[in-house]
Amino acid sequence: MAKKWPRQRIFNEAAALQFIRDSTTIPVPAVIAVGEGPDGFFVTTELIDGIPLADIGEKCEVATLPGHEKTKCSACQATAIANAKTFVEETVLPQLRRLTSCTTGFNGFVNPPPWVTEVDRRESAVPEFVFCHGDLGPHNIMTDPFTLKVTGLVDFENAGYFPSEFLEQWAVEVKGYYNMYKTMYESPAELSRLTMALES
Ligand SMILES: [Zn+2]
């Protein structure tokens, strides 16, 4: 299924990355170019060192250490997940909580995460929204496979100001992340609770 709003999501990504770089110490890639080319809209960013947290341990880079396995290394995974959790809780969330706005979205464009797209009825006067990444999971947390520490966050196309409850929708484990979405999609009560937050 094609994603909604191709142009806006690309420009939102570029604007959000620049905003995060200007407003926080959260490591995100610099925007090199944004525009429209022969293949559609594009944003080019610098590369962030490392690999997605979701791929950590597939090939262990420190296999000589005790407790590590050459492939499918659970020791690497456990350490990287613990590091990412600390990073999100201590470095990312406190800084995002300080970025507030009276309107949802970002720069006039609101690109909600997929779980609210279908039921979105925003014209809200809620006094305070906080800046959310919108898709903060192990596929978007870049991690150094040697040190197992977070190197940066990527993929800000869903970023913007949303109710603070949205900031809590994150998980550093693949399973936890997809369970979170499954819970939302399969639980009318949970989905309703979150989309109501947009309307209150
Ligand atoms: Zn390992």
Automatic annotation (TrEMBL):
A molecular-function term among this protein's GO annotations: kinase activity
Source organism, top-level taxon: Eukaryota
Gene3D superfamilies listed in its UniProt record: 3.90.1200.10
Domain Aminoglycoside phosphotransferase: 5-161
Keyword flag Nucleus: no
UniProt KW keywords: Kinase, Transferase
Pfam families found in the cross-reference section: APH
Annotated SUPFAM superfamilies: Protein kinase-like (PK-like)
InterPro entries xref list: AGP_Transferase (IPR051678), Aminoglycoside_PTrfase (IPR002575), Kinase-like_dom_sf (IPR011009)
Xref: PANTHER family: AMINOGLYCOSIDE PHOSPHOTRANSFERASE DOMAIN-CONTAINING PROTEIN, AMINOGLYCOSIDE PHOSPHOTRANSFERASE-RELATED-RELATED
Protein name in UniProt: Kinase-like domain-containing protein
Phylogenetic lineage: Eukaryota, Fungi, Dikarya, Ascomycota, Pezizomycotina
